[in-house]
Amino acid sequence: MNDTPLLSIKNLNVAYGSVRAVSGISLDVYEGEIVTLMGANGAGKSSTLCAISGLVPYSGAITYQGQSLRKMSPDRLVGMGMAHVPEGRGIFSNLTVHENLRLAAWTQKDAGKIREDFARVFALFPRLRDRQRQAGGTLSGGEQQMLAVGRALMSRARLLLLDEPSMGLAPVLVREIFNILRDINRTGVTILLVEQNANMALRIASRGYVLETGAVVLQGASEELRDSPRMREAYLGG
């Protein structure tokens, strides 16, 4: 593992008016890892991702590839190899699958490389190839999640920020999505995964952080967290 984190967060604070969503958290993500942020609704997980992506104001320090993100616009972050798959997927429901994917390749000018990216996405998600001309809004929930992840990959992301990819999906689809995330990671893409399904998250992640009311209360290797009595009682069903 490289000694320098790909993504580093130090003393991050996020507030919405008088409500503090994130309170002084620090974490590191190293290249090639899957790291998961876990916790209940309102724990500050999504706010952390939004701060990284430049979508909400924050205090503290966030660096990516050694560069401060303090004054970086979200579109510049995409150009630097970071992609955020938001909770709720955020696809363009009135555009076709192909159009959703093609829009995400706006940073790429080489037509040959765009074709390569389409081939890569369709190899991971064969259903998207079969539904290229179908409107995004007509896809099932699982297919929309596949489209959201595929769209992020079209930007040639080096770091994927994934917010609740299992939300609203049947268990069989959750397993499929998580298996694909593991495959994506094996191609060299680093993943920061926000997830309430702690069992599934710890199955594919190397390390994890547990947030409660905006603060990190547990952290460690996935095996250590699975063995933690506090973790088992609160998040792993005893």
The overall strand count is 10
Mind telling me the C-alpha Rg?
17 Å
Mean pLDDT, as a whole number? 93
Order of helices and strands: EEEHEEHEHHHHEHEHEEHH
Termini, distance in Å? 33 Å
Query: Which strands sit side by side, in order, in the main sheet?
Result: 6-7-8-3-9-10
Number of helices: 10
Named at the architecture level, the CATH assignment of the domain at 1-78 and 190-238 is 3-Layer(aba) Sandwich
Describe the secondary-structure layout.
Elements: E1 7-16, E2 19-29, E3 34-38, H1 45-52, E4 59-64, E5 67-68, H2 74-79, E6 82-85, H3 97-103, H4 111-124, H5 126-130, H6 141-154, E7 159-163, H7 171-186, E8 190-194, H8 198-204, E9 207-212, E10 215-221, H9 222-227, H10 229-235
Parallel strand pairs: 3-8, 3-9, 6-7, 7-8
Antiparallel strand pairs: 1-2, 1-4, 4-5, 9-10
Helix pairs in contact: 3-6, 4-6
Describe the structure.
The chain is of the alpha/beta class and 238 residues long. The protein has a domain at 1-78 and 190-238: P-loop containing nucleotide triphosphate hydrolases (Rossmann fold), CATH 3.40.50. It has ten helices and ten strands. The protein has helices at residues 45-52, 74-79, 97-103, 111-124, 126-130, 141-154, 171-186, 198-204, 222-227, 229-235, and strands at 7-16, 19-29, 34-38, 59-64, 67-68, 82-85, 159-163, 190-194, 207-212, 215-221. It has a six-stranded mixed sheet, with helices on both faces. Strands 2-1-4-5 form a four-stranded antiparallel sheet, covered by helices on one side. Helix 3 (97-103) runs parallel beside helix 6. The longest helix is centred in the last third of the chain and has 16 residues, at 171-186. It is globular. The two termini are 33 Å apart.
